[in-house]
Amino acid sequence: MYDGIVQDLIDEFGRLPGIGPKSAQRIAFHILQTPSFDVSRLSQLLAEVREKVRFCEICGNVSEQDRCSICRDPRRNQTLICVVEDAKDVAAIERTREFRGLYHVLGGAISPIAGVGPDDLRITPLMQRLADGTVQEVILATNPNLEGEATATYLSRLLTSLQITVTRLASGLPVGGDLEYADEVTLGRAFEGRRSV
Amino acid sequence: MYDGIVQDLIDEFGRLPGIGPKSAQRIAFHILQTPSFDVSRLSQLLAEVREKVRFCEICGNVSEQDRCSICRDPRRNQTLICVVEDAKDVAAIERTREFRGLYHVLGGAISPIAGVGPDDLRITPLMQRLADGTVQEVILATNPNLEGEATATYLSRLLTSLQITVTRLASGLPVGGDLEYADEVTLGRAFEGRRSV
Fold first, then answer.
1. Considering chain A, what percentage of its residues have pLDDT values greater than 70?
2. Is residue A13 assigned to a domain?
3. B78 touching A, CB under 8 A?
4. Do residues B188 and B121 both lie within one domain?
5. Chain B residue closest to A52 (CA)?
6. Is residue A38 domain-shared with residue A122, that is, in the same domain?
7. Zinc fingers (C4-type) at which residues (chains A, B) (predicted)?
8. Whole-angstrom distance, CA of residue B46 vs CA of residue A149
9. Is the ipTM of this complex over 0.85?
């Protein structure tokens, strides 16, 4: 629809997740029409991220060094590991400031439909981290959906042989949410997990 | 939340229109975790677009040459000009394949709130294009909102002195839409503009 490279740029933005053709067009035109938008800075960051960012050799979180800032921090509770699917989940949990232990990023969840089995996840490195007996509790913080639950179940069975407490994040009503709009499964979980006040 | 440049890249994507912090994070991680994503191609396109793409000296549409492909095309109807707010609107109208005339991009719409007056739009170049008497009809295709209507009204008054037919795109129910869900103004316009069948 557009002359050559404008369309090429739109197509390239359209390849990114969550960006449809309309958004891609809007972004390309914004870049075209905003002289103050620093194109070279974005390009430089893209190149730098590709070059410098790797995954922490211990936990699998994103890092600019061999070990991420959390694994390097001696003040973190070394007896507690929170297992998550993705590095994005680490950032989400860090934002709560509720958790001061370490993480382990699996790199996905078990999903027969997507062809992801236990061997595709970073489960062996997790078992190695647990081998020396330092860790006393593993918190399974995989997503509360089919794949995440399957992964949590798989891991909890695998961990029963070790002398480690295994816990799962609570399911229930989202804070600020409306009971009326909660789905049945979530509402059911909220009843199951009810606490005395 | 993230180590250095990952957060920088997220922030940079977050500066683009329509991309919130969550989408920006998702995009940055996609680029990080997808080795096949061609970072250098995106960078190259960004630089090329900045370097090569300009605005057509006649109509103001995006173009890789001094004149855009539409203004260069002798088969287009030279007696008909469709006035739009933005180059994106040219692409939207071209997609319909209904219009074979020329365009004129204003570069916005009159908006006292945003501080955009007639002098900020490409109205003088439009008047110059109309001066030689070739153009017989001007179609005002500004957006059917407050600013677009104000701009259309302003232009239609300005053009009454010339021997040119001035028309406005029809307002009414969107095709495939549901009458029940149409807002009152649109439904009112649909009644006003009703045609015998």
1. 98
2. yes
3. no
4. yes
5. B5
6. no
7. 56-71
8. 42
9. no
Largest CA distance in chain B: 66
Residue ranges of B 132-161 with Cβ closer than 8 A to chain A? none
Both B168 and B89 in a single domain?
Answer: yes
Q: Does A27 touch chain B (CB under 8 A)?
A: yes
Report which residue type is found at A3.
Answer: D
What confidence category does residue A186 fall into, taking pLDDT thresholds of 50, 70 and 90?
Answer: confident
Q: What is the pLDDT of residue A152?
A: 94
In a domain, A64, yes or no: no
φ, ψ for residue A86, nearest 5 deg = -140, 155
Encode A52-85: b = buried (16+ Cβ within 10 Å), e = exposed: ebebbebbbbbbbeeebebbeeeebeeebbbbbb
A82 vs A44: CA distance, rounded Å: 34
* Residue A179 and residue A107 share a domain: yes
* B64 occurs within a structural domain: no
B6 neighbourhood in chain A, CB within 8 Å: 49, 53, 62, 64
Q: What sign does the dihedral B176-B181-B187-B191 (CA atoms) show? A: positive
Tokens of A185: 């499964």
| Helix pair angle (B87-96, A21-33), 10° resolution | 140
Residue appearing with tokens 């509790």: A137
Angle at A138 between CA A55 and CA A133, to 5 degrees: 90
How many structural domains are present in chain B?
2
A30 touches chain B (CB under 8 A): yes
Closest CA to A166 of A107, A126, A111: A126
Average pLDDT, stretch A90-99? 88
Q: Is A34 part of the contact surface with chain B (CB cutoff 8 Å)?
A: no
Q: Do B26 and A88 touch (CB under 8 A)?
A: yes
- Are A78 and A12 within one domain? no
* CATH number of B33's domain: 1.10.8.420
Nearest-neighbour CA in chain B from A161: distance (Å): 33
Which residue range(s) make up the domain with A150? 72-196
Interchain proximity A2–B49, CB inside 8 Å: no
Find which of A1, A7, A9 to mutate to test the B interface (most B CBs within 10 Å of its CB): A9
Same domain, A113 and A85: yes
